Amino acid sequence: MVPKISVAALACLFAIAASGAHGQTYPTRAIRIIDPYPAGGQGDVLARIIAPKVSESVGQPVVVENRPGLAGNIGAEVAAKSPPDGYTLFMGTTVALGPSRSLYSKLGYDAIRDFAPVTRVGAGAYVLVVHPSLPVKSVKELVALAKARPGQLNYASAGGAGSGSHLSTELFRLRAGIELTHVPYKGGPPAVVAVVSGETALATMTVLAALGQINTGRMRALGVTSPQRMALLPDVPTIVESGYPGFEVTPVAGLFVPVKTSKDIIARLNTEFRKVLDTGDVRERFAAQGVVAGGSTPEELGAILAAEIEKWAKVIKAAGIRLD
């Protein structure tokens, strides 16, 4: 005798089968990674290193789409409001998503409410540089000079007010107890030109942006913001070594999806991207950008972002920064 199966049980079986089929067939079309900055920026470069390798693995195109504007907020809002179907990812950094809650009273997205973390991609650092004419060769000497000339030393920020370059310099200023004058620039190249030309005395910027000028002597590197010295600048001490214990700014790049994306899809994306990030080729290419490649669980990336939100909220309040 064939046992009778209720309508409800059949419906349940069909639902399970459909769910399994969906998980097995995803993705069936192109996946896009939204980078909220212009082409050529560090996040854009990292995304373009990993995208073709993931594409090869999943059998579908993985394309990078640049949506710059408003310090990364336009791209973030576009990504947050995209369908939660696994076909739109967001390349975000903790020095952009982390401070956004405190910098703006009105945003079209919320870093915690509207995004689900997928995986950490890599971590970089900034380097504190000065014009070579400035009579300082260490962080200690820079602080002494700034205290002797309160407010007279100006610094460039790559990306303008609220950027990682700006906020990391403000954190240093607060920790050192000095007064500096902020001069905002729209991006890395004009900030580099400002320091090289002597238009500004100093800046904190990505190692990749500054490296060529440091190597040719047109900038002097005083310290890096990573917890350990960097392979690209092995002779440059950390700011921790320079007398500021606990000082660390390591911009973490991560991939996020709209918050209602299914856990099965997030798990698939996590597996695919972490597999690529663990390859020797990707690690070498990231290292050339001054970034240490490395994936994580979604929970680990979420914890990193939460800690950065708390950290930068304190800095922004202490510095009195508000952008709207």
Give an overview in words.
- There is one protein chain.
- 44% of the residues lie in helices and 18% in strands.
- By secondary structure, it is an alpha/beta fold.
- It has two domains: 28-123 and 251-319, D-Maltodextrin-Binding Protein, domain 2 (3-Layer(aba) Sandwich); 126-224, 3-Layer(aba) Sandwich (D-Maltodextrin-Binding Protein, domain 2), CATH 3.40.190.10.
- The strands form two sheets. A six-stranded mixed sheet has the order 2-1-3-10-4-11, sandwiched between helices. Strands 7-6-8-5-9 form a five-stranded mixed sheet.
- Helix 6 (164-176) links the parallel strand 6 and strand 7.
- Helix 2 (42-58) packs across helix 9 and helix 6 (164-176) crosses helix 11.
- The longest helix is centred in the C-terminal third of the chain and has 22 residues, at 298-319.
- Mean pLDDT is 92; it is low at 7-23.
Labels describing this entry:
D-Maltodextrin-Binding Protein, domain 2, 11 strands, 324 residues, single chain, 6-stranded mixed β-sheet, 44% helix, alpha/beta, 11 helices, 2 domains
Q: How many strands, what sense, and barrel or not for the largest sheet?
A: 6 strands, mixed
Structure class: alpha/beta
Taken from the alpha-carbon principal axes, the silhouette is globular
Number of helices: 11
- Which strand-content bin applies to the residues? 15-25%
Can you write the helix and strand succession as a string?
HEHEHEHEEHEHEHEHEEHHEH
- The low-pLDDT segments are 7-23
C-alpha termini separation: 73 Å
Query: How many distinct domains?
Result: 2
